[in-house]
Amino acid sequence: MLNKTMADFLAAEGFETFSALNGDEGLEMARKENPDLILLDIILPKKDGYTILLELKKDDGTKDIPVILLTNLESAEDVQKAFERGATTYLVKSNYKMEDVVKKIREILKI
User: Fold this and answer.
1) Among candidates 57, 26, 28, which has minimal Cα distance to 40?
2) Does the structure show a pLDDT above 70 at 1?
């Protein structure tokens, strides 16, 4: 789920965003919209980010979409689990400003 502040900031930076209310909706939206990149939290209603990540990477239609985990969880186990499931990168929300997230997005998308 992309909070309104982050969505507004990304829109101001020229990105088109989609936001989901829960993990199931986010997975369905990713399959339907085929975005260039996914910002994904781990703690979500209905289906957690790890499960979504696994499902995205098993699906031929979404497996190549870069996924940035943007979360408050920062244990080594969480980071390892994310990369084992196919995350492109892992950012802890409290350690990054929105400008840093945009910079990472541009770096991954090569824009």
Assistant:
1) 26
2) no
